[in-house]
User: Fold this.
Amino acid sequence: MTDGMRIVALKFQLNGKPVEMECEAEETLAEVLRNHLNLNGTKVSCEVQVCGACTVLVDGLPVSSCTYLAYEARGKNVATIEGLEKPDGTLHPLQQAFIDDFAFQCGFCTPGMIMAAKALLDENPQPTRAEIIHHMDGNICRCTGYVPIVAAVQRAAGVMAKESKK
Amino acid sequence: MMPLRRFQMHQPKNVAEAAEMLAHYGEKGRLYAGGTELLLAMKHDLLRYEHLVDVKTVPGLDKIEAKNSSLHIGGTVTHRAIENSPLVRERLPVMAEMARQIANVRVRATGTLGGNICFAEPHSDPATLLLALGAKARVQGRNGERTLAMNEILVGAYETALAADEILTAIEIPLLAKSQRAAYLKFQVHERPTLSLALVLDVDASGNAITKARAVVGSVSLTPCRSDKADALLVGPRDKVEKQLADAAQVLAEAADPGDDLEGSAEYKRHLTGVFLRRAFAQALSGAPR
Ligand SMILES: Cc1cc2nc3c(=O)[nH]c(=O)nc-3n(C[C@@H](O)[C@@H](O)[C@H](O)COP(=O)(O)OP(=O)(O)OC[C@H]3O[C@@H](n4cnc5c(N)ncnc54)[C@H](O)[C@@H]3O)c2cc1C
Ligand code: FES
Ligand code: FES
Assistant:
């Protein structure tokens, strides 16, 4: 029987740029992002797939990087909060909307909230309020309250629709 | 961050090789799919494995196909893929609707149907619906293939009838006949369902009488539960059955015999069984065949 992998040769796209590195089989994507790649925007809280603080997108789908093995990112596109602003520093409409709607207080849940919302808007640019709530159901905020968060997602959807018409 | 203990990852090229690997590593190895159950338990050191066998590297297990009068959903198909599959939405909408209600978007994106059934967590949405639909699991190990009904594969809490080297390759679900109606509902306040209820009814041509019924209550006992006696009370003219719903729910709840736990008291769960049976009955008989 062939040996299994202890060390994974990992090649993937991170926020549009190629990454080539090695990691251990049991390392999570959050550990690789935070500890090896110094991207600390992705937060880790519950570590059991419940809170969504650690949400990143893999091939456009939201995953809990706290318990998603970095091994799974082989050959895929990973998007984190750090990749959202434009090179000139302009914020993504979701980031701007979270500011405009006061959709965060401590901000710990915000990167995960924004990445989850991005996955929704990329797939369904004009979601209904009910669709936003269903989609964001697994992202927990302990201080802001959900009303401004839902409002921010709605606002961003509106801004993005206008931008895409330009 | 809570680190995982060290392990090696194995990438079988086919089911036979995966079965060999599982047999070879025995207690030290485990099949790994989406990891949404396994990695959590390993993080908390409830389970320890030195070898994980990645079932997703086996080609062909991620397909959804309609064959004759049944739907075949591969073992590594994710909840999200079921929820979004045009085939499932068209041919068995109740299955897509159930998948849409599982966990959260992230768990649905990575968690698989095979992993759900094989972990045999008592609070499973798919297990409840699949038992009502009369689904079967196809499993394959070193000694060949076999087919198990849902009540055969699920034998207890976190306990299946699978041998250590067996892999669930697909779930086969009979499509509903034109005369059949189905509904799936759940009550949930925590991460997993407090109670799940699935109902499949056969109606006569007039639509006013039920000729056959299959009700399943899940998440309140170790495995999803049904009762011939409860199903019998759900057969007959519609207005008569409506009057018997409370009795049927009582019989079903007695069969499930729920206990008190963090989800609620036994009495509360028996009460919910009645509420959800009534709602499922109304939903199944409203609107188009599902
Ligand atoms: C926050 C949270 C909320 C959840 N909510 C719900 C809910 O509402 N409803 C619900 O039903 N579930 C819920 N779940 C459970 C969810 O983990 C499962 O639904 C998921 O499908 C498990 O699949 P997996 O691929 O991640 O399994 P894994 O974790 O990879 O594997 C689980 C077990 O199954 C075995 N296994 C995996 N695939 C196979 C196979 N093909 N053949 C044989 N054995 C196999 C593994 O060896 C392991 O023992 C929730 C989980 C979390 C973390
Ligand atoms: S930290 Fe990953 S879901 Fe909470
Ligand atoms: S802003 Fe503090 S947890 Fe959401």
Summary: Chain A touches chain B at residues 1-6, 8, 24-28, 30-31, 34, 44, 47-50, 52, 55, 61-64, 66-69, 71-72, 116, 119, 134-135, 137-139 (CB under 8 Å). Strands of chain A lie at 7-14, 17-24, 55-58, 61-64, 77-79.
